[in-house]
Amino acid sequence: MQGGGVRQQGGGLLSDPWLLAAASAGLVSAVMALWGLRGLPLGTAALWLSPMPLFLAGIGFGARTLAGAVGVAALALLVSGSTVALGVYVAAFGLPAVLLMAAAGRGGQGDLGLPLALLGILPAAAILGGAWWLSGAPGGLEGAMRGAAEAGLARLGLPADANVIASLVRVKAAAIGFWLALALTVCAAIAGGLAARFGLAAAPAWRDARLPAWYLALPGIALGVWAAAAEGADAVPLSLLLVLTVPVLLHGLAALHRRTAGLKGRIFLLAGLYGALVVFFVPLAAVVAGYGLYDTLTGNRGGRGAPPPRS
Question: Would you tell me the crossing angle of helices 52-61 and 17-37 to the nearest 10 degrees?
């Protein structure tokens, strides 16, 4: 069976595989999201993994199934009476999953370069949209983030130190964008592995994703805007720069997975890398992103669709 190609004749709506897949994936995803948003045990993991059933349905049965699953999940969240959960779910997981699957094409079996680029473009667009939407509010987007940071510290019982709040404001939007991009990437990779394991589809491995060379212009522009921003008013430009760098970092990780394929002790090498990233995130992330930049410039000279190197 291939993604989007599973069909069954007769039997009514309940015997249509894509409808069943959309309904089941949407309901499971909605339950996972509600589990997390209501603070139940292991809720954080459930929330971040809630896009996985959507990607599994999309890879196994096609993009329309994924879109249908998002619709079912949205309806379930609406019925639950939580409009906040509905808005968060659709904006953070549902709509991005649909766009990523549409960009991948052919049930997620096409080129993964554009979906990788969207992991930076979508959060950047959300930040720009939020800045525009809140432009008339006191302090704009930065003021809203400052209020959220103060409220978060208050809930934790921590003092609202001005320097701490200023630091949180500068990176809060970028941190949200980073975790969303990471969650979507992990969920799509797990879904692809499960789809292949159960014979639903043979999606390409995430390590073969190659960031298009044109994308590098976007973080370059963001760097220039941030450098030109006035001191103390650079939270939005800095957030844009950081979220637009995330796909370069992910490309670097994918390239390292490709380059180390076949090496003895590879699993220990990669485990050490990820462990070091957790402890020394900022310096090592910069190194990995730099490698991603190098690999994009040197490895994509053949243009879109150039075959990735194999070990």
Answer: 170
Question: How far is residue 85's CA from residue 40's CA, in Å, rounded to a whole number?
Answer: 14
Summarised one tens digit per residue, pLDDT across range 191-246 is 888 888 877 766 666 777 889 999 999 999 999 999 988 776 777 888 899 999 99
As a whole number of angstroms, the distance between CA 68 and CA 99 comes to 13
Indicate the burial class of 185 (C-beta count within 10 angstroms; 0-12, 13-18, 19 or more). buried
CA distances from 141 to 119, 145, 147 (A): 21, 6, 10
Residue 278 burial by Cβ neighbours in a 10 Å radius (0-12, 13-18, 19+) = exposed
Q: How confident is the model at residue 47 (pLDDT cuts 50, 70, 90)?
A: very high
End-to-end CA distance of the chain: 29
d(CA 197, CA 16): 22
26 band by pLDDT with thresholds 50, 70 and 90: very high
Nearest residue to 191 via CA among 6, 21, 76: 21
Residue 71, CA atoms < 13 Å, CB-side half-sphere: 10
Handedness of CA 24, 29, 34, 39 (dihedral sign): positive
Going from the C-alpha of 202 to that of each of 47, 56, 139, 154, 189, the distances in angstroms are 26, 12, 49, 48, 12
Pairwise CA distance, residues 307 & 259, whole Å: 14
